[in-house]
Amino acid sequence: MRGQAIVLAINGWDPRGWEQRFRALAGNRAVHVFPDALQAADSIAYACAWKPDPGALAKFPNLKAIFSLGAGVDHLLRDPRLPQAPIARIVDPGLTQRMTEYVVLHVLMHHRRVRLYDAQQRACLWRDHDQPPATDVSVGIMGLGVLGQDAIEALKRIGFKLNGWSRTEKNIDGVQTFHGAAGLDLFLAQTEILVVLLPHTPETERILNLALLRKLKRNGALGGAYLINAGRGMLQVNDDIVAALDEGALAGASLDVFPIEPLPKESPLWRHSKITITPHNSASSVPRELVQNVLDQIARFERGEPLQNVIDRKLGY
Amino acid sequence: MRGQAIVLAINGWDPRGWEQRFRALAGNRAVHVFPDALQAADSIAYACAWKPDPGALAKFPNLKAIFSLGAGVDHLLRDPRLPQAPIARIVDPGLTQRMTEYVVLHVLMHHRRVRLYDAQQRACLWRDHDQPPATDVSVGIMGLGVLGQDAIEALKRIGFKLNGWSRTEKNIDGVQTFHGAAGLDLFLAQTEILVVLLPHTPETERILNLALLRKLKRNGALGGAYLINAGRGMLQVNDDIVAALDEGALAGASLDVFPIEPLPKESPLWRHSKITITPHNSASSVPRELVQNVLDQIARFERGEPLQNVIDRKLGY
Prior knowledge:
The structure is a homodimer.
Chain A: E1 5-10, H1 16-25, E2 31-33, E3 44-50, E4 65-68, H2 74-77, E5 87-88, H3 93-111, H4 114-122, E6 138-142, H5 146-158, E7 161-166, E8 176-179, H6 180-189, E9 193-196, H7 210-213, E10 226-229, H8 238-247, E11 252-255, E12 275-277, H9 287-302
Parallel strand pairs in A: 1-2, 1-3, 3-4, 4-5, 6-7, 6-9, 7-8, 9-10, 10-11, 11-12
């Protein structure tokens, strides 16, 4: 199918699994990998990308749509020569489910004081501590899109009190919601465990700084505030997280994303006793699950249906 | 109210919080603490007990009911001189919720490989590993009472495949159930993460032994089998858990209960890298939540209603 070929432009992940899966499922549609794809540049209609080289996608003059293979699109928007084709985010039930697994796990780890009991185990110390039930603990979700709302539903089933914050107003059953700059301080003042699922935009960059973290509720049922960042690394000011932990604004943090990835070996975050680090795997994109999703979108698009989950370039998500 | 007084017989926990709470909520009803209560022995109608001294409850000739203040009753039944009054277990929504928190937390810790990433963090190592989604992972619950069924509902919401085993046949929506000795091997062969919420009875004592653990499914999505014992310590053969971990029958274990508690400092369980130990706090009994529950039961009993959650002494639960 000339003029309907796919280019895979993938950095930071092993592209081979994606290539195999796309070739296996694409039927007659040609699948090329960047930079070899340049030899067939005119035939390429769809780019499936993760952290493509800046300027790479501009080399395909007939691009009709760009698909981000992960949950974010900031890696695309930072390319000043990005073509004007529509950009579709991945919204995949499997990806959403994985993120909910991660969020529920890390909320419960802080709530049930896993790191305190880990330290006691190392000291062979048998000692119980006061344990508030989930119904006394306030979890606040920043970012109320598909991922945030699914995590909320699972946390609600466990029993947590839930607050939510988003850029624009949202109403979610059983959740106290806040929005915009005006609602942020009130949201933080009622949040003991802060779960961050925001996109990276100019407005959210470095939002997880010391001034914000100091506004979290420290005197709630848990007796301290906790941060879980499973959103984007550029939201987070690493030095401020450490400062917040060391002065007591935070009692613990789970970090899955970082401004520079992989997190450099010399970063003090690795060695901080109150930080749990995961290697950006809260909701990994897996070819097995996502490739069919993208191919289905392309097929619908070619039948004349609108692309789903197209991002707004001005908003950045 | 003579002839309707309460005795608190509590060992292993600090009795003061219970005493204060009972006195605060009991109105005109007298509340005595063992052994001082012996001076008013004739007036005692209700015993509220946790691990009472053997023979202690036999000293109250007018006992109408015995309430266990924790989820189990094995601590009562081991007393050969236990009076014949009916014994009621605690079935409290707060206790159930706490157990579900614990079960969901530890299932997700094994599923999402927390101990592997902990070790990588200590080595400042950024490396992702294959991660099956919850929908590919089989969790098996042994014990399908109130606690088991609530945990199942929460795990279902996360996405896990669920099996259940109990002594007698139970049907639970969306769960593959097995029962009795005849169903046990098939249940184990389909279970990657085994969650044990059984009572301690002559039939279940030392059930978690090497022969049983070797029957778990090791070649499932997780590539290994995991044990979570939040039931009773006497179910578990400590040496066999270590042997199962060392030979690979188990890939990890979360243990909240032990045959001897506190777990002795010299136990090798403390230092095993694949074992997570918690100090019997999966679902702690808290006076704030439970005392009103017991007093409500007594009030209903005095109005002529039947006691709830009365155990069968022959079955042991």
